[in-house]
C-alpha cells in the first residue's frame, strides 16, 4: 500500500483514494462538432505509458478533492502531486 | 499404503526448444513470447504452413501473464461475439493435449459463477440461457446444487452476501500454464519457428503505410508481417507504429497456498465477493485477487488487495482459514473499455493487433492463436475475431462484457 | 534413550509437557520446539516426500527447514507447519506430512486482527546486527520497532554457547524495553516489504500457549508498519551440499545441530560425521564432541583444512580429512556416511556448504542482488534509499563487524559495545561446492519437491537456460520453503551445467510472503458481520418485527416482501400489489440516494448532467430525469426537485447513490470548476416513505392536517412542506406505480414514528406495507425501467422508449454526442417492450432469451433479446414481462418465442406500458 501525498491533506494510505486515469483530458468544447473518430478518442482512448504519467486521483475517503499526480508506472513511485488547475510539473523519473 | 500426493504428475519431455539467434529477416515476426504469441506461431506453422517465423520475447518465454495467471478456462460469456471465440477456444482446449503431444493437465472440472443478489440471479440466468442457445454447456444451480458440486462453499443464508445460486459450466476447467506454453513452444520450434528470448523490441519501422522491420535489443529484423501479442505492453508497442489503443495496463495479483489434500473439486468465481479459486493438481489453492485501480507496469500490486481477497475467500470458504499464503505475484493486464479484446488488422499494413484481453487471456490461448494466425495469413479477420476490431470504439459496436467479466476473468 | 543433555539450553526441565506425534506419546519441556522435543527422543523421521515417498527428517532448526512438515491437530487442525517452528505445548497432537496438509472441516474459532504502527526505524531481526541497529536508533530518540521471528532475541547467538554475548543480548533487550517509543515484537515475522516504508509482519500471539490460549486474544496479528527507514538484519541460512542419498533423516545442517544442542540442550545423535566446506562446521563438530557426541570424522572439501581448527579437532579425537561425502547408507535414518569406498558408521551426518544471506525482503523492496563468488551466494547490491541491510544478511559473519554494520545502518555514531567472541571464529575462506558427483537420481536439490540433480540436468538438456524456466521444469523452490536452502544450489548446478558465470545469471524473484501466512490472519476482522458494513434505515426494526424478508441492495438491507403466515412470495406480492392498486400501501424508500445540490450554477450543472432540461423547473416542482455516461448509456435515473432558486434535491437509485455523487464531484472539480455548485449527500438524513394507492390521500389527510391534499391544490409532480404526525415533513406528489401516491420525507430521527403514524392512520383502509418486489411489479406494469435490471450499460434512453426525456433543445449534455454514433442510430437496436405470454398463466423466468422462430435451429441460435422483468400481475389478472428486444417497437403485435427448459413459450410483443396507459389513476 502506497502513501499518496494528497496536496490538501498530506500523505495518506492508498486505500483512501480513488483512481481517475489520465489527467489533462479536457471535455471537448463542442462535442457535436467532432467526428465519430474524434469523439471516440475522447471517450475511450487514453495514454498508457510505461514511465511518468500525469493522472488524476481523488481523495475519496478524505477531503474528496480531485488532484493530479505524476507517477512512474514502472515503479509506481509518485514523482509529483499538484492541485487541479495547476500545470503538470516537470519531473524526471 | 497410498502413494505420495505428488507421484502422478506427468514429466516434461526431455527436449523443449533451442534458443536461437535472430535471423536478419522473417516472413512473420510475432512480438511477445507468451501463450498467445507462441500459439499464434504454432498455428501459423501448422495450419498455414508459414514457418519462417520468429517469436521475440523480451524476457523468458511465457514469463509474463502466462506464468502469472490462475489458469481458469471457460466459455460461458454473455454476448454472442465473446461466446463465439471463447467456445472456439474451449473446443481447441479439448483436443490440445493430443494436438501438442504434451501433457497440459487440462482438467474439465467445471466452473461455478456465484450469484449473491437478485440482480446477479437475473444476470446469471440470462447468461445461462444465452450460452445454451449458443451451444455452450451451462446450467443454473440453486444453493443446494452449489453445495453438491462444491461442498466447501458456505451456502448458509446467514453470511453477509449469501449465495443465491450459481451458473455452472461443466466443460470449464483448468490447465497447467507452463505446460501449455511449453507445449506450443516445443511444437512451434519443431516446425521451424525461431524462439528468441531476451530480445526486446525497441522500435517498429513503417514505410509507406506498411510495416517494414522491427528494431530490437539484438538488432534490426526485417519483417514481412508483424503480429503484436504483448498483453500489458501493447500500448507501448503500438505507439511505436503510431497507433493509439484504448487500453489501460493494470497490475493484477494472484496467490497460491501450500499443497493441501483435495477439498475443492471445481472452480468457483464470484464477482460480487471478488473471489476466484481453484485447487491445482498438486493440491495448492490458486486464487486471483481484484485488479489494482491504477495503471502500472511494475508487476506488483498493493497488499490490501490481497487482504481483501482473503476476507472474501473466507466468507465463501470458511475451511480455508488455516491454509497459508505461500506466494503472491502480479501480472500486467491490458484492460479495454468494454472488457473485450482487440484482435485484427491495424491502419498499418502487415501489422496485426492482439490485445485487450484484460484478465481473460489464458483461456483464449488456443482460440486466439488459431484466429490470429488466420488473420495474419489471410490479411483479414477470422469470423471469430471479426467483431473485435479497433473501429468498434468509433462506431459504438462494443462487446460489453463488464457485467460478465468485469472483475473475474 | 534420551538425547536431552542434563543441562544447557533455554528449556525448563522441571516442567514436563506431554505431546503425541504420529500416534506416539512423548514428552518435552517449555522452550522446546516440536523438532527439538522429537530429537530429544531420537526421532528424526518426520514425514515422507511428496513424489517418491522417501522418509524426510529435520534439516535446519528454523523456518528455512525444507522437510519437517507436520499437521498440527490440536487445539485446532492446521496444515503444513514446520516442526522446527512449532513451539511445544502440553497436549499437542501432530503428525508428519508427505508434503501435503489437510484443512479442518469445521470453522476456525480463533480471532485474528491487525494493528497499524508508525516508526522512524524498523529493524527486522534481533540478532547482533539488528539489536545494535535498534539500540543505536533508540538511543538517538527515534521511534523504533524491532521484529524478530524467534520467541526470544539473539538470532545466531541462540545457536552457540557464548555466555558473554548472550549477556550482551539480554542487556540490549533490557535497555530497548526500557526506552520509550521502542516496540520489541518477538514471534513476529516481517513477511512483506512494500513501497513507501510499508512492511507487513505476522505476530504469533497465542500459538505457543496451546490449550491455555485465551479465546479473547487474537491468535495472530498482522502488523501494518509504516516506517521511514528499514534495517534488514535478517541473518543467513546455512546451505547444504548435494550428494547421493543426501535426503535421509539424520542428514542435518551443521549449524542446526549446534542450535539444537545449545538452545534446547538436545543432541542430534550419538555418532556424527561432519562434511564441511568452511570453518563454521568445525565449530559445530567441536561443540558436539565436547557434549559427548562421538565425532569420528570431519571431511573438509577444501584442499587445505584450517590448521588451528583442525588441531582443535584432533585434540578432541576428531579425524579431519580432506575429502567429500559421496553417499549415505540407511533405511529410515542414516546409518553410515559413504566416503569413496569407505563406509563410516554414524547416525547423524552434519553438512555445511556455506551460508546464504537472507535477501528475500531486500529483493522484495526491488533491491538488486549481486553474486558473491567467495560466498557462493547472492548478496544485496546497490543500497536503497530507505532500506539498509546489516549483519550476516550482507555476507558479513564477524560479530563485531555485524554490530558495527547495525549501528551504521541507522546512521548514528552511538557506540554499542559488544564483547569479543570466538563462537564464530574463522581462519580460512570457504569453498563453494554445490554438489558431489555420484548418482544424480538420488542427489536431492530440493528435498521437499523431490527434485534431483538429474531433474536439473534434464531441464538444461531440454534447452532451458533461464533459472525461472528451470525452476518451473523441476519445481525446485516452489514448496512451502520457497527454496530457502535449495534455490542457490540449483542456480549453481545450472551455471556449472551450462558453463556460465553465476554473476551473469538473474536469480529467481523473491516474492512475499517471506514465510507462509495463514489466510485467516490476512482476513483479520473483516469476516462475518464485519466483512462489509450493513446499512439499515431508521424504520428497519419495524420491518424485522413484522416479518419482512430482506433483499441485499448494495450494502443496504431492504424489505423484499412481508409474507403472512402460509404465504409464499407470489401470494404475498399479489396481496401487496392489490393493496397498492385498490386501497393503500406504503414502503420504506429511505435507501434512495439523495443529493442536495446548491449554488448559483446548480441548474446549469444539472442540465449538463441530465439528458433533459432541469434549469427550467420551477421552485416547488419535480421532474424525472435520466443520466447517461459519456458513451450515451443510461447510468441512473430519479427525480429532481427544485427546493429554491439555488437549491435542488436530486434522488438516485439505491445502489448508485455514492457513484452519482462521485460522478457529480468529478465533473465539477475536474471539468467545470468555474461552476458555483456544491453537492452534499443527504441520503441518511431523510426517511422516505412512498404512500401509494387510491386511499393514500385519505391517509395523508389524516396525518397532515395542515396540508390541502386535493388534486387541484396539490398537483402531480409538485412538493409541499408540511407537518405529519407533528413532525416537519416534505411531501412529494410523485408516483412510481401509476397510482395516486405521495412520497413523504422526514428527518431520519422521526422516520419510525411517522411510519407508525401512517400505519395507524391507514388501518381503517387496510394499509399494507410492501417491499421491493411489489415495487418492481407495480412499476413494471407501468413500463418504468429499473436501472440495472432493464439496463446493463448497453442501453440508451431511446432504447428504453424514453426519447421524451432527451432534450432536443440543450446544446450539450453528458452522453449527447454518443447518441449520434452509427451504432446508436441503427434501427435494429434492442428496445424495451412488454411481453404477454400467450398462456396467461405462464410466468417467464427473468433472464430468458427470446427467439423469433417456432422451432430452434441448431446452435448458435439467433437471439432477439432477453426478459428483464417478469411477474404475475394482480391488476392485469395474468402474467407479463418486460424485455429488451431487437427492433422491439416494430414488433408490437408479433409473436415471439421464449425457450424455457425444453419448451418454446409463445409470447405477444406489446407496448411496455401495460396498465392504465392513459394515466387516469395517478390523481386518485
From TrEMBL, chain A:
InterPro entries: SoxD, SoxD_sf. GO terms for molecular function: sarcosine oxidase activity. This is Sarcosine oxidase subunit alpha/sarcosine oxidase subunit delta. GO terms for biological process: tetrahydrofolate metabolic process.
From TrEMBL, chain B:
Keywords: Cytoplasm, FAD, Flavoprotein, FMN, Nucleotide-binding, Oxidoreductase. Signal peptide: none annotated. This is Sarcosine oxidase subunit beta. One of its GO terms (molecular function) is sarcosine oxidase activity. Its EC number is 1.5.3.24. It is found in: Cytoplasm. Belongs to the SoxB family. It catalyses: sarcosine + (6S)-5,6,7,8-tetrahydrofolate + O2 = (6R)-5,10-methylene-5,6,7,8-tetrahydrofolate + glycine + H2O2; sarcosine + O2 + H2O = formaldehyde + glycine + H2O2. Its main location: cytoplasm. PROSITE patterns: RHODANESE_3. It is an enzyme of class 1 (oxidoreductase). Residues 5-72 form the Rhodanese domain. It comes from Lentzea fradiae. One of its GO terms (biological process) is tetrahydrofolate metabolic process. The keyword Nucleotide-binding applies. Its cofactor is FMN; FAD. GO terms for cellular component: cytoplasm.
UniProtKB/TrEMBL annotation, chain C:
Residues 442-525 form the SoxA A3 domain. One of its GO terms (molecular function) is oxidoreductase activity. The keyword Oxidoreductase applies. Keywords: Oxidoreductase. Residues 539-810 form the GCVT N-terminal domain. The keyword GTP-binding does not apply. InterPro entries: 2Fe-2S-bd_N, FAD/NAD-bd_sf, FAD/NAD-binding_dom, GcvT/YgfZ/DmdA, GcvT/YgfZ_C, GcvT_C, GCVT_N, SoxA_A3. Residues 830-916 form the Aminomethyltransferase C-terminal domain. It holds the Pfam family GCV_T_C. This is Sarcosine oxidase subunit alpha. It comes from Lentzea fradiae.
Amino acid at each position: 500500500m502506497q502513501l499518496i501525498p494528497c496536496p490538501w491533506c498530506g500523505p495518506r494510505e492508498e486505500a483512501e483514494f480513488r483512481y481517475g486515469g489520465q489527467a489533462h483530458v479536457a471535455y471537448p468544447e463542442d462535442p457535436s462538432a467532432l467526428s465519430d473518430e474524434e469523439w471516440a478518442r475522447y471517450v475511450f482512448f487514453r495514454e498508457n505509458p510505461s514511465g511518468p504519467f500525469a493522472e488524476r486521483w481523488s481523495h475519496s475517503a478524505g477531503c474528496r478533492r480531485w488532484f493530479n499526480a505524476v507517477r512512474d508506472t514502472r515503479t509506481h513511485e509518485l514523482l509529483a502531486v499538484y492541485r487541479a488547475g495547476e500545470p503538470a510539473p516537470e519531473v524526471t523519473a | 499404503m497410498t502413494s505420495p500426493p505428488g507421484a502422478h504428475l506427468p514429466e516434461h519431455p526431455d527436449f523443449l526448444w533451442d534458443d536461437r539467434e535472430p535471423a536478419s529477416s522473417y516472413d512473420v515476426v510475432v512480438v511477445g513470447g507468451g501463450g498467445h504469441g507462441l500459439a499464434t506461431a504454432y498455428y501459423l506453422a501448422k495450419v498455414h504452413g508459414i514457418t519462417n517465423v520468429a517469436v521475440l520475447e523480451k524476457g523468458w518465454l511465457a514469463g509474463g501473464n502466462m506464468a502469472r495467471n490462475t489458469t481458469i478456462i471457460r466459455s460461458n460469456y454473455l454476448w454472442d461475439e465473446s461466446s463465439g471465440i471463447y467456445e472456439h477456444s474451449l473446443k481447441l482446449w479439448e483436443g490440445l493435449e493430443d494436438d501438442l503431444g504434451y501433457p497440459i493437465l487440462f482438467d474439465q472440472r467445471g466452473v461455478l459463477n456465484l450469484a449473491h443478489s437478485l440482480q446477479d440471479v437475473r444476470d446469471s440466468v440470462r447468461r445461462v440461457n444465452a450460452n445454451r442457445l449458443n451451444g455452450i454447456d451451462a446450467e443454473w444451480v440453486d444453493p443446494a446444487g452449489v453445495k453438491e458440486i462444491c461442498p466447501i462453499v458456505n451456502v448458509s443464508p446467514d453470511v453477509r452476501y449469501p449465495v443465491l445460486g450459481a451458473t455452472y459450466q461443466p466443460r470449464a476447467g483448468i490447465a497447467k500454464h507452463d505446460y501449455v506454453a511449453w507445449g506450443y513452444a516445443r511444437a512451434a520450434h519443431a516446425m521451424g519457428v525461431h524462439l528468441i528470448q531476451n530480445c526486446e523490441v525497441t522500435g517498429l519501422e513503417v514505410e509507406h503505410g506498411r510495416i517494414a522491420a522491427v528494431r530490437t535489443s539484438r538488432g534490426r529484423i526485417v519483417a514481412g508481417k508483424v503480429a503484436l501479442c504483448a498483453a500489458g505492453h501493447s500500448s507501448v508497442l503500438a505507439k511505436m507504429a503510431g497507433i493509439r489503443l484504448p487500453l489501460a495496463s493494470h497490475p493484477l495479483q494472484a496467490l497460491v497456498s501450500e499443497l493441501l489434500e483435495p477439498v475443492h473439486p471445481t472452480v468457483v468465481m464470484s464477482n460480487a465477493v471478488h473471489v476466484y479459486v481453484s485447487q491445482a493438481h498438486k493440491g495448492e489453492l490458486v486464487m486471483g485477487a481484484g485488479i489494482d485501480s491504477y495503471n502500472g507496469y511494475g508487476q506488483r500490486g498493493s497488499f490490501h488487495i490481497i487482504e481483501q481477497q482473503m476476507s472474501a475467500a473466507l466468507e465463501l470458504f470458511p475451511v480455508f482459514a488455516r491454509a497459508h499464503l505461500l506466494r503472491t505475484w502480479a501480472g500486467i493486464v491490458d484492460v479495454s473499455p468494454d472488457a473485450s479484446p482487440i484482435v485484427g488488422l491495424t491502419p498499418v499494413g502487415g501489422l496485426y493487433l492482439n490485445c485487450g484481453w484484460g484478465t481473460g487471456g489464458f483461456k483464449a490461448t488456443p482460440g486466439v492463436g488459431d484466429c490470429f494466425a488466420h488473420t495474419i495469413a489471410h490479411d483479414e479477420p477470422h469470423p471469430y475475431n471479426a467483431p473485435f476490431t479497433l473501429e468498434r470504439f468509433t462506431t459504438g459496436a462494443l462487446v460489453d462484457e463488464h457485467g460478465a467479466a468485469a472483475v473475474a476473468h | 534413550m534420551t538425547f536431552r543433555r542434563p543441562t544447557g539450553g533455554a528449556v525448563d526441565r522441571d516442567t514436563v509437557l506431554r505431546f503425541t506425534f504420529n500416534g506416539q506419546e512423548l514428552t518435552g519441556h517449555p522452550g522446546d520446539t516440536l523438532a527439538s522435543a522429537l530429537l530429544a527422543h531420537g526421532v528424526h523421521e518426520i514425514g515422507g516426500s511428496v513424489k517418491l515417498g522417501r522418509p524426510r527428517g529435520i534439516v535446519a532448526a528454523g523456518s528455512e527447514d525444507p522437510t519437517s512438515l507436520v499437521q498440527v491437530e490440536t487445539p485446532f487442525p492446521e496444515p503444513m507447519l514446520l516442526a522446527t517452528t512449532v513451539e511445544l505445548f502440553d497436549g499437542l497432537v501432530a503428525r508428519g506430512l508427505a508434503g501435503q496438509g489437510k484443512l479442518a472441516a469445521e470453522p476456525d474459532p480463533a480471532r485474528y486482527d491487525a494493528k497499524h504502527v508508525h516508526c522512524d526505524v524498523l529493524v527486522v531481526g534481533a540478532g547482533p546486527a539488528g539489536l545494535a541497529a535498534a539500540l543505536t536508533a533508540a538511543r538517538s530518540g527515534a521511534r523504533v520497532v524491532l521484529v524478530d521471528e524467534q520467541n526470544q532475541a539473539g538470532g545466531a547467538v541462540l545457536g552457540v554457547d557464548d555466555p558473554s554475548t548472550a549477556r550482551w543480548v539480554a542487556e540490549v533487550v533490557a535497555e530497548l524495553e526500557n526506552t520509550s517509543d521502542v516496540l520489541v515484537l518477538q514471534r513476529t515475522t516481517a513477511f512483506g516489504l512494500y513501497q513507501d516504508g510499508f512492511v507487513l509482519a505476522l505476530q504469533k500471539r497465542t500459538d505457543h500457549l496451546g490449550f491455555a490460549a485465551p479465546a479473547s486474544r487474537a491468535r495472530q496479528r498482522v502488523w501494518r508498519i509504516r516506517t521511514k527507514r528499514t534495517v534488514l538484519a535478517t541473518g543467513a541460512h546455512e546451505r547444504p551440499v548435494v550428494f547421493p542419498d543426501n535426503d535421509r533423516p539424520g542428514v542435518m545442517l551443521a549449524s542446526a545441530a549446534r542450535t539444537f544442542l545449545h538452545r534446547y540442550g538436545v543432541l542430534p545423535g550419538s555418532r556424527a560425521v561432519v562434511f564441511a566446506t568452511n570453518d563454521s562446521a568445525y565449530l559445530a563438530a567441536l561443540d558436539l564432541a565436547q557434549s559427548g557426541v562421538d565425532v569420528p570424522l570431519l571431511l573438509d572439501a577444501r584442499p587445505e583444512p584450517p590448521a588451528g581448527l583442525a588441531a582443535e579437532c584432533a585434540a578432541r579425537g576428531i579425524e579431519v580429512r580432506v575429502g567429500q561425502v559421496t553417499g549415505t547408507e540407511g533405511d529410515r535414518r542414516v546409518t553410515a556416511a559413504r566416503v569413496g569406498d569407505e563406509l563410516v558408521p554414524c547416525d547423524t551426518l552434519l553438512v555445511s556448504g556455506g551460508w546464504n544471506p537472507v535477501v528475500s525482503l531486500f529483493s522484495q523492496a526491488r533491491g538488486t542482488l549481486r553474486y558473491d563468488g567467495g560466498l557462493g551466494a547472492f548478496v544485496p547490491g546497490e543500497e536503497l534509499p530507505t532500506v539498509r541491510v546489516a549483519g550476516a544478511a550482507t555476507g558479513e559473519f564477524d560479530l563485531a563487524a555485524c554490530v558495527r554494520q547495525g549501528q551504521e545502518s541507522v546512521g548514528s555514531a552511538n557506540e554499542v559495545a559488544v564483547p569479543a567472541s570466538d563462537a564464530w571464529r574463522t581462519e580460512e575462506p570457504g569453498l563453494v561446492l554445490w554438489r558431489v558427483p555420484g548418482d544424480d537420481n538420488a542427489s536431492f536439490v530440493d528435498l521437499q519437491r523431490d527434485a534431483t540433480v538429474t531433474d536439473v540436468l534434464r531441464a538444461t538438456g531440454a534447452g532451458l537456460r533461464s533459472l525461472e524456466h528451470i525452476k518451473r521444469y523441476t519445481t525446485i523452490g516452489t514448496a512451502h520453503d520457497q527454496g530457502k536452502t535449495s534455490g542457490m544450489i540449483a542456480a549453481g548446478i545450472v551455471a556449472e551445467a551450462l558453463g556460465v558465470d553465476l554473476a551473469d545469471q538473474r536469480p529467481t524473484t523473491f516474492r512475499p510472503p517471506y514465510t507462509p501466512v495463514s489466510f485467516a490472519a490476512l482476513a483479520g476482522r473483516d469476516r462475518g458481520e464485519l466483512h462489509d458494513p450493513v446499512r439499515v434505515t431508521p424504520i428497519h426494526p419495524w420491518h424485522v418485527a413484522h416479518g419482512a424478508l430482506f433483499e441485499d441492495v448494495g450494502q443496504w438491507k431492504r424489505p423484499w416482501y412481508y409474507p403472512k403466515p402460509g404465504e409464499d412470495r407470489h401470494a404475498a406480492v399479489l396481496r401487496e400489489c392489490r393493496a397498492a392498486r385498490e386501497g393503500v400501501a406504503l414502503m420504506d424508500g429511505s435507501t434512495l440516494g439523495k443529493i442536495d445540490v446548491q449554488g448559483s450554477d446548480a441548474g446549469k450543472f444539472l442540465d449538463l448532467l441530465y439528458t433533459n432540461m432541469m434549469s427550467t423547473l420551477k421552485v416547488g416542482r419535480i421532474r424525472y430525469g435520466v443520466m447517461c455516461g459519456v458513451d450515451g448509456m443510461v447510468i441512473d435515473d430519479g427525480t429532481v426537485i427544485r427546493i429554491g432558486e439555488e437549491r435542488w434535491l436530486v434522488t438516485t437509485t439505491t445502489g448508485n447513490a455514492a457513484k452519482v455523487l462521485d460522478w457529480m464531484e468529478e465533473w465539477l472539480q475536474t471539468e467545470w470548476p468555474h461552476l458555483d455548485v456544491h453537492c452534499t449527500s443527504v441520503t441518511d438524513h431523510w426517511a422516505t416513505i412512498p404512500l401509494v394507492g387510491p386511499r393514500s390521500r385519505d391517509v395523508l389527510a389524516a396525518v397532515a392536517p395542515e396540508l390541502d391534499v386535493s388534486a387541484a391544490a396539490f398537483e402531480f409532480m409538485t412538493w409541499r412542506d408540511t407537518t405529519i404526525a407533528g413532525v416537519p415533513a416534505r411531501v412529494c406528489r410523485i408516483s412510481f406505480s401509476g397510482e395516486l401516491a405521495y412520497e413523504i420525507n422526514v428527518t431520519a430521527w422521526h422516520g419510525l414514528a411517522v411510519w407508525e403514524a401512517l400505519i395507524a392512520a391507514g388501518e381503517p383502509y387496510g394499509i399494507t406495507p410492501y417491499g421491493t418486489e411489489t415495487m418492481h411489479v407495480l412499476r413494471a406494469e407501468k413500463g418504468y425501467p429499473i436501472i440495472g435490471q432493464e439496463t446493463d450499460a448497453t442501453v440508451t434512453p431511446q432504447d428504453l422508449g424514453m426519447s421524451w426525456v432527451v432534450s432536443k433543445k440543450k446544446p450539450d449534455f453528458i452522453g449527447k454526442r454518443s447518441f449520434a454514433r452509427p451504432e446508436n442510430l441503427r434501427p435494429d437496436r434492442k428496445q424495451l417492450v412488454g411481453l404477454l405470454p400467450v398462456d396467461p398463466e405462464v410466468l417467464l423466468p427473468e433472464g430468458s432469451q427470446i427467439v423469433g422462430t417456432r422451432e430452434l435451429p441448431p446452435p448458435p441460435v439467433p437471439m432477439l433479446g432477453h426478459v428483464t422483468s417478469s411477474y404475475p400481475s394482480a391488476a392485469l389478472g395474468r402474467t407479463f414481462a418486460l424485455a429488451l428486444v431487437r427492433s422491439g417497437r416494430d414488433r408490437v403485435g408479433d409473436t415471439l418465442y421464449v425457450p424455457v427448459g425444453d419448451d418454446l413459450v409463445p409470447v405477444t410483443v406489446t407496448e411496455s406500458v401495460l396498465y392504465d396507459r392513459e394515466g387516469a389513476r395517478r390523481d386518485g
